[in-house]
Design a protein that fits this description.
Blueprint lengths: L6 H9 L17 H11 L12 H17 L2 E2 L7 E6 L2 H5 L6 E10 L10 E7 L23 H20 L5 E7 L7 H8 L8 E7 L9 E5 L7 H8 L6 E5 L8 H5 L5 E5 L18 H20 L18 H4 L2 E2 L2 E3 L9 E6 L4 H5 L6 E5 L2 E2 L3 H9 L6 E8 L2 E8 L1 E2 L3
Parallel strand pairs: 4-5, 4-6, 6-9, 7-8
Antiparallel strand pairs: 1-3, 2-3, 3-5, 7-9, 10-17, 11-12, 12-13, 13-14, 13-15, 15-16
Helix pairs in contact: 2-5, 2-9, 5-9, 7-9
Length: 427
């Protein structure tokens, strides 16, 4: 792989050394729910077999995304001035499966040059992962389905489609700063594509003023949207609130910039981040996550909000003010290799109260055997406080199958405690 392009070279090639005054923006367009649904349907078609990293379906999705970038007018920003950034995906999970050498896969990258000559050398990154589980039962919540195709319509064809639609709107009316459009592979194996991007950036990360991530944004319910990372820059809470115009969404804003999606790779490098998420559901990591269950009109509302946020960040005279936090140590076992299983179904649209509310438990699971049920709010697991999905994941993945753990939870206002023996997920 060739070394990253220097920023000055990128600007010279992509702007033609333009020295003209800032042009007037074109009239506004609006998000198109039909386009969003068609893009999700293409990515979540059985023919791509779930877009597992390193599979033919994943490669086909990458090639399609490159064609979509070209059709939209997004300029190439990958290796050798193309749209793709090729890398070898390696993870503990793959090593355990006998693939220690890894598999070749690719990110798909593009650039929308900013309209302001004074600011177009700074960037907002908009990104989403396009890989899913493929036919693998590893990390699946329905191992009994064995090698069934897990299409990942919400996880994360929905986020991929959101980035494409946002790119279309930004090409039609460019922001003052430039926008990097990034589709990552290898997220389900441990954020591998976004990690490769920040390790081999095609533009200087010092010039990246923010990263906005979309992961599972296709199931808007009751107007509830979760946005992580609002404490990673001082101005982000006000920007998010101002962008939430009528008809307003019920936003649950979480400050933390770390978590099990691609924004974490950027925040670990000091880049302010936001992560848009419409919540978990019973089809998460199951073969039932199909396009028929997508709320395309709801996703269009999320994209409209995100466009206002991105423009507010990209059009500011000065960058947002970064707030740096120490990176959290990864949980033992890690998301990409752990097979620990409790059997809870979190309800991430439950509001701002601390803890993790459950929308259900799996029949016969350790959670079921321990007496947990829908409506319970877990507030601690294994001695670790649980404030939201991310801290719950950290607490759970710090353990191994067979460990006995104490769980504190609240039911109907009453604080309770149980001890459960964690199970093993997998075929």
């Amino acid at each position: 792989m060739r070394p990253p392009l220097r920023l000055a070279t990128v600007l010279l090639v992509l702007t033609g050394a333009c020295r003209t005054a800032e042009p007037s923006p074109a009239p506004s367009a609006v998000p198109d729910a039909g386009r969003i649904l068609r893009d999700i349907a293409w990515l979540a078609d059985d023919r791509l077999e779930g877009r597992g990293t390193g599979t033919a379906g994943n490669d086909s999705a990458a090639a399609w995304l490159a064609r979509r970038h070209a059709a939209l007018g997004v300029r190439p920003l990958g290796d050798r001035a193309g749209y793709v950034q090729v890398f070898t995906a390696r993870s503990a999970q793959m090593a355990h499966a006998g693939q220690a050498e890894g598999v070749t896969t690719r990110n798909v990258l593009g650039l929308i040059p900013g309209r302001d000559p004074a600011l177009r050398g700074e960037y907002v990154v908009i990104g989403a992962h396009f890989d899913h589980l493929g036919r693998s039962a590893a990390n699946a919540m329905d191992p009994e389905a064995r090698d069934a195709v897990r299409n990942g319509a919400d996880d994360n064809a929905s986020g991929t489609a959101a980035v494409l639609e946002l790119a279309r709107l930004l090409v039609a009316r460019p922001a003052r700063r430039s926008v990097v459009v990034a589709h990552f592979s290898g997220e389900e194996l441990g954020l591998l594509g976004s990690q490769w991007f920040v390790d081999h950036p095609p533009v200087s990360l010092d010039s990246a003023v923010a990263m906005v991530n979309f992961d599972m944004v296709g199931r808007l319910r009751n107007d509830k949207l979760i946005v992580y990372g609002v404490a990673t820059a001082r101005e982000l809470p006000a920007i998010l609130d101002s962008a939430n115009v009528a008809p307003r969404l019920a936003i649950s804003a979480v400050g933390d910039g770390f978590g099990p999606s691609d924004q974490s790779s950027f925040y670990a490098r000091g880049v302010p981040v936001l992560h848009f998420f419409t919540g978990l559901h019973d089809d998460y990591h199951r073969a039932s996550d199909d396009v028929a269950k997508i709320n395309a009109a709801g996703e269009a509302r999320v994209v409209a909000l995100a466009e206002r946020v991105v423009r507010a960040i990209a059009d500011r005279p000065a960058p947002v003010t970064r707030v740096r936090m120490a990176a959290r140590a990864p949980a033992a076992g890690g998301r990409e290799g752990s097979s620990v299983y409790l059997g809870t179904v979190p309800d991430m649209s439950a509001g701002d109260a601390p803890g993790l509310r459950l929308t259900g438990v799996r029949s016969g699971s350790p959670a079921d055997a321990g007496g947990l049920r829908a409506g319970d709010v877990i507030i601690a697991l294994g001695g670790r406080p649980v404030k939201h999905l991310y801290s719950y994941s950290d607490a759970l993945y710090a353990h191994q199958p067979g460990d006995r753990v104490d769980i504190l939870f609240v039911r109907a206002g009453e604080r309770r405690a149980i001890t459960v023996t964690l199970g093993r997920r997998g075929p």
